[in-house]
Amino acid sequence: MEKVKVLRKYPPKRDNILLILHELQRLNPNNYLTEDDLRLVSQYLSLPISEVVGVATFYSLFSLKPRGKYLLRVCKSPACHLEGAVSLLQEIKNYLGIEEGDTTDDGMFTLETSECLGHCAEAPAMMVNDEVFTKLSEESVREIIDRLRRS
Amino acid sequence: MGKVRLKIDGKEIEVEEGKTILEAAKEAGIEIPTLCYHEKLLPYGACRMCVVEAGPGALKPACATYVTDGMEVKTSTPEIQEVRMTVLQLLFGERNHYCMYCESSGNCELQDLGYKFGLDHFEFPPYEDKYPVDVSHPYILLDQNRCVLCRRCARACAELGGHFVLEVKNRGYQSLINIDLNNQFAQSSCVSCGLCVQVCPTGALVDKRASYLGRKEQAEVIKTNCDRCPVGCGIEVYRRANFILKVYGDWDSPINQGVLCKNGRYLPLYEDRPRLNAPKLKEGGIWTQISPEMAFKVISEKKGAATVFLEGSLPLELLQAFKSALGDRVFALNEVNPPIPSTATLKDLEDADTYLVVGVDLNERYGVVGSMIKRRVVPQNARLIAVEAGSLSGITDFSYEYKDIDTALGEARKGEKVVAVYSSLPEGISERLETESGFKYLFLPYEANTMALKELGIEHKVPQEKVKIYVGENISSARSPGDFIVAFTPFETPELKSVADLLIPITWYLEDEGTFITLEGKKVVRQRVVTPAEGVLTVEEISSRLLKI
Ligand code: SF4
Ligand code: SF4
Ligand code: SF4
Ligand code: FES
Known about the structure:
- By secondary structure, chain A is of the alpha+beta class.
- Chain A has helices at 2-8, 17-27, 35-44, 49-58, 78-82, 85-96, 138-150, and strands at 70-75, 109-114, 126-128, 131-133.
- In chain B, the strands form seven sheets. Chain B has a seven-stranded mixed sheet. Chain B has a five-stranded mixed sheet with strand order 2-1-5-3-4, with helices on both faces. A five-stranded parallel sheet of chain B has the order 20-19-18-21-22, with helices on both faces.
- Chains A and B meet through helix 3 and helix 4 of A and strand 8 of B.
- FE2/S2 (inorganic) cluster (FES) binds next to loops of chain B.
């Protein structure tokens, strides 16, 4: 099984928990960690399941809920905030019809916020999966979303 | 260990290396406020109530900062007090700390700090968010709205109990106490040891039964020993009037150091078998209440033919009384002799590298012994070889059935300090086990006072006689025509009533003083904490009446 192969790549040491969780999450088409994943890690690393849940919920890059094909992460750090990140976020919510943390019914988009993306000079910014978009406006986010939807 | 010299609030002091500032200050008689700190747990540094100045401009948590030579510590400058005040204001504002609706009001470390710092208003807008409340557990209530995230519960569950059920999930203000895999308490691996409740400083974890029945000030706290099994843990019993509010583990007890199990902390307080409150005689199928005199007259008449069967749950004094009255016709109802005699003490569990647990589920019985083992096995400081060890097999890769005993022994032999832990063993297994020269053996006696039966030389025998006198709390008996069955017992269960002819009420649990001999052979005394109901015969009454039959 593919998951077991992922585990075997790493020695069963506690230190490897983040690497393993990342790989398992990436393996999942819905980009999240299932209860079985958590149990598997708990068993493989001989860690209490409560501790694995603690780690997996601490980092915002992990999710225990299914996520969309595209993960929108809107930066909410001060620079972006001053450049209108709040209304931008509201625009995306309206346009997609979902709240922060939710996924659209068609499974295309999940909306999250994030700490500083390191693009303060080009604020406001957001990340879509691994790609960063900057100097956003309400029109440009709608365009980006439309384009992703068509692709 | 070397010594370290430092200055605290201008006072020159010398302490042992490896101490924290908090411990050093305590030694010097200087008090520093704390919240997440707990004497029995590893330093954690979550709350920042204990900040002190150690070096110019640097505020450090005293509970989690170790002393160094030449350190200069200030514990209460105006700046420090202000920081602590802010921390406290934040703690009060973050969740629901409206004390008047809280069960722990009057017994809460957060509230104590509030009074100490003279908090008289909310500096920050108080909480708006609602957090989950879990009422599913039979004995414990978890209200996350009152949690200060000190993580004492999770630390105690893991470090002391060895259960590793609790953790913190999420982060920041969304942090919550997590149970296993996001479980409800009742559907979790919690073994109901109650440690988390005992260490929680606030009203976030409360004891359901003791709730709203009285505060610590209204209760008397009596230190004594648990009589539910031969470990003999030190307990603190909270009594109000003639009622037991709750049982806590005694942190000062050399046996259990504060840890308890479900059987010691909760089960006796939830006992619901009907109590027997007067002697009763069955004649022609009908039960009638009789006087103690009558009851003992019947016994005296049957004395010549009677054989006595004593449970090992009884105090030494009562065992002795029957033994002196009826001599060689007194037997133990249950097994007495160990399959292999003990060569280890509980202390040997502290530094063993391998535990071989055979035929006993330590999550169900002898729970504190289980904690001593689990808290070293789960963090991988020692290995557990489990042979038919019930739920304990879930925490080890080395789990075997009896038929694989040789493989298990081979695995255990790889250890240098091996302790074998067992109670009764099936035939064939004890022979295999006892020949290991390198092992230490820890026998867990079958009942709380099995060791007293042994000391009195009372042997086990299967009851076959016509006239039987049983003494104990878990009596069950077969009955054949012509039998006469007497039971000295605290409970009148329908099963017992269907077989017995005469029932005599005896005291139970903390209703009577009595001596117990622990698995290590130590004598501990169970105090009388509550007065038994009228009509129940005390150990003393029974002893003196037995002398006269
Ligand atoms: S009752 Fe014991 S086992 Fe259960 S969560 Fe609390 S400390 Fe852990
Ligand atoms: S439940 Fe109690 S002990 Fe646990 S973190 Fe919250 S306040 Fe601390
Ligand atoms: S281990 Fe035994 S003595 Fe200790 S609390 Fe549990 S039942 Fe009581
Ligand atoms: S008591 Fe030191 S940080 Fe909480």
